[in-house]
UniProtKB/TrEMBL annotation:
Pfam families: ECH_1
Protein name, per record: Enoyl-CoA hydratase
Endpoints of the signal sequence: none
Top-level division of the source organism's lineage: Bacteria
Family the UniProt entry places it in: Belongs to the enoyl-CoA hydratase/isomerase family.
PANTHER family documented for this protein: ENOYL-COA HYDRATASE, IP11341P-RELATED
CDD domains: crotonase-like
UniProt GO MF annotations: catalytic activity
SUPFAM superfamilies: ClpP/crotonase (SSF52096)
Biological source species: Parafrankia soli
Length: 375
């Protein structure tokens, strides 16, 4: 995405604009982003006034000296600073040499490209951060399903399908390698009982364990089984192959007939709701490139262990959607609303060390992609 010009307002200027026209900043007006310097008591007043508006509200501070009392609870969706490794809920530069302007530019580009999805996301997490975790999962599904019927997702889906058709047309001219005949098809999820432990392994390694219908149903069934069996003391969740999980299977996106049916299916065969029945007994092991559901589902677990080379990313907004595997519930409860919003609104990858510093990961140590490696 090209980085647009970013107008960071002084609190006084922001208040004048908001009082003159409260609807000035909104997705449908072409101004979905309100960025304000987080200094002085008026910055708190801006947050308290704008937190109900249909826009993305970002507070920026080059450093954290002399912050006004109450700024961190004033309602800003993201709080950016130029200081390295700042305390929560602030986000500092993730790469050496960056200031807060790089992150603000990424957020501005995202809100310009998909304003409807960005605003829907921030409104969702403002609400869902304070309710029961299961209710938050349901609220996420409502929002996700609504956006599935919107123009931003339709545009992304049309582009994705066109690109896939071009790839398939090119593949059709390449030599065809025959698949072995008679090879049994392995299940998308392997479930094995070992004493009082239940091993649950994502088993689509050729596609980095992308979440298909079969994988979704397999996980929901496995977690429901563990939740109903008190003799299961520990559930170990792993991914076979090079990555724990690369997110949703893009070949199945847009395949349900309508958003209402999609919501009904998502809340009936729900990975998050099933996992929550046994979450206190689940340890998740992450490795490789973890995207979307590959971040959101493990975040529900009691304990998350990540390989040092793991990268984590929430890319759904760029598709015109919000996280759809429980991320607006699970990630928010691990890292806070503001840092969860940062991850989605930038789409930037997070390394394992930073994820551990934020609380998205509990321990960083080597993790392999074997079905049953040593623990």
């Amino acid at each position: 995405m090209a980085v647009p010009e970013i107008d960071v307002l002084e609190p006084e200027e922001a208040l004048l604009l908001l009082r003159a026209d409260p609807e000035m900043f909104a997705a449908h007006t072409g101004r979905p982003l309100l960025a304000v310097r987080a200094h002085g008591p008026l910055a708190v007043e801006v947050g308290e006034l704008a937190r109900w508006l249909p826009c993305v509200l970002v507070g920026v501070a080059p450093d954290l000296a002399d912050l006004p009392p109450g700024i961190e609870s004033a309602g800003y969706d993201v709080l950016l600073t130029g200081e390295a490794t700042p305390p929560a809920p602030w986000v500092g530069p993730l790469r050496p040499g960056d200031g807060f302007t790089a992150a603000l530019g990424a957020i501005a580009a995202m809100t310009r490209a998909v304003p409807g999805a960005c605003v829907a996301f921030t409104q969702l997490v403002r609400y869902s951060a304070g309710i029961d975790v299961r209710d938050a999962v349901i609220a996420e599904s409502f929002t996700y399903s609504t956006l599935q019927g919107g123009p931003e997702f339709a545009a992304w889906l049309a582009g994705h399908r066109a690109a896939r058709e071009r790839r398939e047309a090119g593949a059709a001219t390449a030599p065809v390698r025959a698949e072995p005949i008679g090879q049994p098809t392995e299940p998308a999820v392997l479930v094995e009982r070992d004493g009082d432990e239940l091993w649950v392994v994502l088993n689509r390694p050729r596609v980095h364990n992308a979440v298909s219908r079969d994988l979704r149903d397999g996980l929901a069934t496995a977690f429901a089984l563990a939740g109903a069996d008190p003799t299961v003391a520990e559930v170990r969740l792993r991914g076979a192959g090079r990555s724990f999980c690369s997110g949703g299977d893009l070949t199945e996106f847009g395949s349900l007939p309508d958003p209402a049916r999609a919501h009904a299916v998502r809340t009936t065969r729900s990975i998050p709701l099933s996992l929550l029945r046994c979450a206190r007994r689940v340890t998740a092991y992450m490795h490789g490139t973890c995207v979307g559901a590959g971040v959101e589902v493990p975040a529900f677990a009691r304990r998350v262990i990540a390989d040092p080379a793991t990268t984590l990313r929430l890319p759904e907004l760029a598709m015109g959607l919000v996280p759809g595997a429980g991320g607006t519930s699970s990630v928010v409860r691990r890292v806070g609303r503001e840092r969860a919003a940062f991850l989605s609104l930038t789409g930037w990858p997070l390394d394992a060390a930073t994820a551990a510093n934020w609380g998205l990961v509990d321990e960083v140590r080597p993790v392999r992609g074997d079905a049953r490696p040593p623990v």
